[in-house]
Amino acid sequence: MPEFFNVLPPDEARELLFQHLTAVLPAETIPTPQANGRVLATAVTAPHALPQFRRSTMDGYAVRAADTYGASESLPAFLQVVGEVPMGHPANVTLSVGQAAIVHTGGMIPETADAVVQIEQTQTVGGERLSVSGEESPISNHQSPQFPFEIEVLRSVAVGQNVLQVGEDVRLDAEILSSGHSLRPQDVGGLLALGITAVSVVRRPRVGILATGDEVVAPEETAAPGQIRDINSYTVAGLVTQAGGVPVLGGIIPDNFAALAAAAAHLLAETDMLVMSAGSSVSVRDMTVQVMDGLGQPGVLLHGVATRPGKPTIVGAVGGKPVLGLPGNPVSAMIQFDMFGVPAIYRLQGVHTMPRRGLVWARLGQNIASESGREDYVPARLEDSADGLMAIPVFGKSNLIYTLVNADGLIKIPLNKGGLLAGEWVEVRLF
User: Fold this and answer.
1) What is the mean pLDDT of the chain?
2) DSSP 29-70
3) Per-residue pLDDT reduced to its tens digit, 44-80
């Protein structure tokens, strides 16, 4: 059996791969509502301030704050209400000393006002304290109030209280999102709030996926004795989609060097990244190395990563495009593509800091053995217990896909730690 060469820890192996990925994919312009999960190609600046006008954060009365100073329930301030600012309209009410205007949550406040008194802190003169839903409230009453009328202010307000100022959320020309930012639902909402209805995003990386092996058949076929259905093409495709890429399935290639070389060259030319899922035999693994080296420069960067499962992973690059050779075992293939393929997809889009993954802390349910000098990834399911969240290892061979199906995430055993003890707090990376 050939020796693995140039074995590196995962972090160093990723950096080696990234050194050979020089090009960020070209940009395209798409409607902002369709941009969730996409990566910005250029920074976005605010075309105007947000809010564009001073807005009330409460139902209540726009006032001059100085007119309320010293007000209390035992000694209220008396103000004359001279008008109302309808929602969605300019504040065309001018306040003089001792005057107020009805305003609503989100509505504009008059230029001559500098604060808003919450309606619950007022009452009509000689009347009861009002509530937002109270029928007697001039704010909630469907009939237009008769102006002027007087209110008692039962608590003073400071300048700016209950008011959103112009630009308090976003200043004019401020950079609101940087290039390389992965857009989230709240980002889409923020862009639309500024009237930005189209954005420039990096094109989605196209990832070619080849399955190899005489024993591999399509999932819809009946597997004869000695045959297995293709799993890796579809698990890898799912990871590609989650990372923002577009999977391109190249089919199943038999254990034939010429056939694999031709299929790999064709698929690599049409995509931005190539993944070959090798069979379990040593001959196929060696064939993948030879095929990768024949695709172009620099070819194979390393053969073997200091991890379990997935040590036989092959990492390479051709013309700035990442090329991966994954082990045939489905658990190994998924874990290794998550370690190398997913970061490469983000890097091709100009993302240098991976989005945060779902992580939880839990107590380990039983001992886990490991060897110093490699990273181990152990599937685990999560269970609630009287002592809190427990991580129960799901042990199984790396060729058994239901090892992952029955798990909620992966426990990482660091490179230089010889195992974990039951009861320890461990970090579980969720699928």
Assistant:
1) 89
2) EEEGGG-TT-BBSS-EE-SS-BSSS-EESSSEEEE-GGGGTT
3) 999 999 999 999 999 999 999 999 999 999 999 999 9
Residue pair 119/139 in contact (Cβ under 8 Å)? The answer is yes
The residue assigned the tokens 């055993």 is 413
Task: Count how many Cα atoms sit within 13 Å of the Cα of residue 370 in the half-sphere of its side chain.
Answer: 24
Domains of the chain, first to last: 10-25+204-348 (3.40.980.10), 27-51+168-202 (3.90.105.10), 55-164 (2.170.190.11), 359-430 (2.40.340.10)
How many residues make up the chain in this entry?
A: 431
Task: Give me the sign of the Cα torsion angle 253, 297, 305, 182.
Answer: negative
Give the burial string for 288-327 (b: 16+ CB within 10 Å, else e). bbebbbebbeebbbbbbbbbbbbbbbbbbbbeebbbbbbb
Decide if 61 contacts 81 (C-beta within 8 A): yes
Cβ contact 236:326 at 8 Å: yes
Cβ-based burial of 88 (10 A; exposed 0-12, middle 13-18, buried ≥19)? exposed
E strand or H helix at 333: helix 330-336
* CA atoms 145, 150, 155, 157: torsion sign: positive
Cis-peptide into 10, omega within 30 deg: no
Angle of helix 282-294 relative to helix 257-270, nearest 10 degrees, comes to: 50
Residue 281 has pLDDT above 80, yes or no: no
Nearest CA-CA partner of 238 in 249, 247, 250: 247
Question: What is the reported pTM?
Answer: 0.79
**Contacts (Cβ under 8 Å, ≥6 apart) of 211:** 230, 232, 233, 251, 252, 253, 277
CA 46 – CA 380 distance, rounded (Å): 45
What angle is formed at CA 245 by the lines to CA 243 and CA 247, rounded to 5 degrees? 120
Q: Residue by residue, what is the 3-state secondary structure of 177-242?
A: ECCCCECCHHHHHHHHHCCCCEEEEECCCEEEEEEECCCEECCCCCCCCCCEECCHHHHHHHHHHH
Confidence check: pLDDT of 209 > 60? yes
**Section 200-204 average pLDDT:** 96
Tell me how many degrees the CA angle 315-280-377 measures, rounded to the nearest 5: 60
Alpha-carbon span 179 to 195, nearest angstrom: 19
Helix (H, G, I), strand (E, B) or coil at 11: helix
Pair of tokens at residue 299: 């070819």
